[in-house]
Amino acid sequence: MSASIKIFDTTLRDGEQTPGVNLNLQEKLEIARQLQKLGVDVIEAGFAIASPGDFDAIKAVSQDVKGVTIASLARAVEKDIDRAWEAVQYAERPRIHTFIATSEIHMKYKLKMTEDEVYERSVAMVKHAKRYCEDVEFSAEDASRSSLQFLYRVLEGVIKAGATVLNIPDTVGYATPIEFGNLIKDVRENVKGIEKVDISVHCHNDLGLAVANSLSAVLNGATQVECTINGLGERAGNAALEEIIMGINTRKDFYSINHNINSTQIYRTSKLITKLTGVGVQPNKAVVGANAFAHESGIHQHGVLSEKTTYEIMTPESVGLTQNKMVLGKLSGKHAFEERLKELGFTLSQDEIQKAFEKFKELADKKKEVTDKDIEALVEENVSEIQQTYELDSFQINSGNKVISTAMVSLKRNGETITEAATGDGPVDAAFNAMERVSGVGLELEDYGLRAVTEGKDALGEVTVRVSRDNKTIIGRGISTDIIEASVKAYLNAINRAISEFGEGIIIVKS
Ligand code: KIV
Ligand code: ZN
User: Residue 267 C-alpha to ligand 2 middle, in angstroms?
Assistant: First the structure.
């Protein structure tokens, strides 16, 4: 009989620690619901004591997402554990995840604690968490750089105190696959009582080995893998869920491991994370990169055309990527559109379908061929919409290589149209400046990205802007066949998000 592993997704906790990522409650809920569809066993929804926003999101996910274990992180400190419990107590299957570092370097310089103090604290805090919650995970932070004898001692102590999951993190991505596999084997063979608990691993990607280390751990007896979608996380990120799963699935003959993930939800989940975090994946990223299933060279194309398995070790369909076929056109009706949405795996309300259909009709007027990717982009623009304080009425741009760019933008607010003009360093800057004048919202533009959703000159362009205020990041997104319009929509989306996040009262009005 083959072994089974549990997938612990920490996109909402370690993933949210990615520089520049800041998700609001609605976005976290949307991600948690998608993770449930994907089939993860555990969702680490946040770090309850870190901020009221984290706390509220963990509580909301606990109340909303059933059939999955919901965890909150907590330092090995009473007040952290109390707060974690306050947030996860609503879950059908709550878990408190407490951690303390066990490596000499962390104990000496960060914690300023002796081995005995760390041991006592670990045991006491697991006991404290156990008063609230049956399921308690203990992480020995920086385990891969800890003394083996001390690690065994701490792990034995927390098992006796009632821990149900022991996590062995490679916190700084220092381990190598053989070494890390051996560490898991050593823990399995030397820690008394280990057979009663799950052995978890949590690998960071500083040397690009997070997935390899996690898989090596699985081969050596780890029963839970902690990972994130698209490999998001601190510094170089965490092990990527999609790579672990497709590694196990594609090489069933080698790993012979079962799990509960529905791999056909991988692509959709990856896209959702990209959209909500504003962090794109590199085109050559394994499994979910834009080129992951593209065959460029003539020899490869020829091979794939005669027999797919010549150069394809997994199918695009197995990760939920539909073929980019031409599906609908200008004359297609709502019924056909709705059917296609179902085939693409969307479950939308009638209102959402109607909105997407109107956008589809507008697009079909401008574009000859409307593909699945276009439809996905239109639908994704609609979901998770926030309060539209301002709506785009019209804009006009004057730009060229010998003139100063000027933009006139009209936005609607409560039925009133407000128009402002501004100059700028290029048409996009001019349009953004005009919108800031209309709304009075001043934001710092940190990043601007443009990508084509499909091929061809009439492709939909998708613009993502990352803006910040008071160290908080907001992502705005807009799509259109016209890249200036896509930019205007993205910035407007960011302005509306800023208003709903901070309230208008605290927005700086630029002079
Ligand atoms: O990387 C790490 O060690 C962590 C722990 C808190 C599990 O994120
Ligand atoms: Zn981590």
Answer: 23
From the alpha carbon of 99, which atom of ligand 1 is closest? 6
CA distances from 380 to 31, 266, 319, 338, 462 (A): 13, 16, 18, 15, 11
233's CB contacts (< 8 A; 6+ apart) are 10, 14, 15, 17, 18, 204, 205
What average pLDDT does this structure show over 121-149? 98
Is residue 353 predicted with pLDDT exceeding 80? Answer: yes
pTM for the model: 0.86
Q: Whose CA is nearest to atom 1 of ligand 1?
A: 171
- Which of 202, 203, 227 for mutating ligand 1's site (highest number of atoms within 8 Å of CB)? 202
DSSP string, 265-334: GHHHHHHHHHHHH--PPPTT-TTTSTTTT---SHHHHHHHHH-GGGT-SS-GGGGTPPP--EEE-TT--H
Residue type, 287: V
162 in contact with ligand 1, CB cutoff 6 A: no
User: 200 in ligand 1 pocket by Cβ < 6 Å?
Assistant: no
202 lines ligand 1 (CB under 6 A): yes
Q: How far is the CA of 105 from the centre of ligand 1 (A)?
A: 15
3-class DSSP state for residue 361? helix
In this predicted structure, the answer to whether residue 1 has a pLDDT above a threshold of 90 is: no
Q: If you measure from the C-alpha of residue 321 to the centroid of ligand 2, how many angstroms do you get, rounded to a whole number?
A: 29
Could you read off the pLDDT of 401-449 as tens digits, one per residue?
999 999 999 999 999 999 999 999 999 999 999 999 999 988 899 999 9
> How do strand 3-4 and strand 472-480 relate by DSSP bridges?
unpaired
